[in-house]
Amino acid sequence: MKRIALCTLLALAVPGVARAGPWAPAAGDVYAKASTRLLLGARYTDGAGATAPIRGYRELTSALFGEVGLGSDLTLLLSWDVARWFAIEGDQKRSLVRPGDARAGLRYTALRFGSGGAFAVEGWLGVPIASRDPIAPLAGEDGATVAQLRAGPGVFDVVGRAEVGWAWTNAWTSAGVGWVQRFGGYDALFDWRAEAGARWWRMQGVLRLGGRHALDTADAERVENPAGQTNGTSFTSTIMELGVSPVDRWLVGGSAQVSLAGLGVRSQARGPVFTLFIAFSG
């Protein structure tokens, strides 16, 4: 019962498309989250690391995420960027809506240690739904095109991760690393993340650091895309998330995100990111 209660607490702390760390929920337990994320792009960093102002770029993504405890330390993971809205300012303002990609995976909690420690491995399969074809140009302040908007990478990918964490009654911390193998001649990605969170009364706060970094492992052309995700995109991020549980099993909140001092960002629009979410655990 103590482990089940701990997993329920941690499920309420699930961030973005990330999950509750290496802890396995009890068989039949479900976590579901709906979120909307807004990027206010003011600058663009190209594949060489040069950053310049842009005329204006906004991106709104509505996403769903879910976890289902399968028993035997297995967790089913599901994620889908349902819709992505893009607004680009230039000689002509453009507004476009495209579907996002979907992902499915499994997590196996392989080890438990101490009173709250755990180690897990997981694998994901990313399924391309959005097209990688150019749909609109992104202009710099001088009006010259600096990138072409693409709604998605347009390729399948396979993700493997390992994560370790430790939880106490009202706090937790975890860290993990992963490898993203992309098809279609795309470069592989190195993935990392670390977070610490605390819960008090009906509120919680989470500080999260993370990044994905393109590795020069393939032959496909690297492209410039403000929406990221395409070949050559790298990023780092710092996220501060706050949430409140108005009633048992429900959590509502939001987060603010910026790049980690601009380190490692390539081929992506930059600016503050704000997210609102609602989550259920039961």
Q: Would you give an account of this structure?
A:
The protein is mainly beta and 282 residues long. The chain has one domain: monomeric porin ompg (Porin, Beta Barrel), CATH 2.40.160. Helices cover 4% and strands 59% of the residues. Strands 1-2-3-5-6-9-10-11-12-13-14-16 form a 12-stranded antiparallel beta barrel. Strands 7-8 form a two-stranded antiparallel ribbon. Strand 9 and strand 10 form a beta hairpin. The longest helix is centred in the first third of the chain and has 10 residues. The two termini are 14 Å apart. The N terminus is likely disordered.
Q: How does CATH name the architecture? A: Beta Barrel
Alpha plus pi helix count = 1
Q: CATH-wise, what's the superfamily?
A: monomeric porin ompg
Strand-residue fraction?
A: over 45%
CATH fold assignment:
Porin
Tally of DSSP β-strands: 16
- Helical content class: under 10%
Strand order of the largest sheet: 1-2-3-5-6-9-10-11-12-13-14-16
Q: What top-tier CATH class fits best? A: Mainly Beta
Low-confidence stretches: 1-19
How do the SSEs run, as a string of H and E?
Answer: HEEEEEEEEEEEEEEEE
The value of Rg in angstroms is 19 Å
Q: How many structural domains can be distinguished in the coordinates? A: 1
Broad shape: globular
Alpha-beta classification: mainly beta
Largest sheet: 12 strands, antiparallel, barrel
Rounded mean pLDDT score: 89
Distance from N terminus to C terminus (CA atoms, Å) equals 14 Å
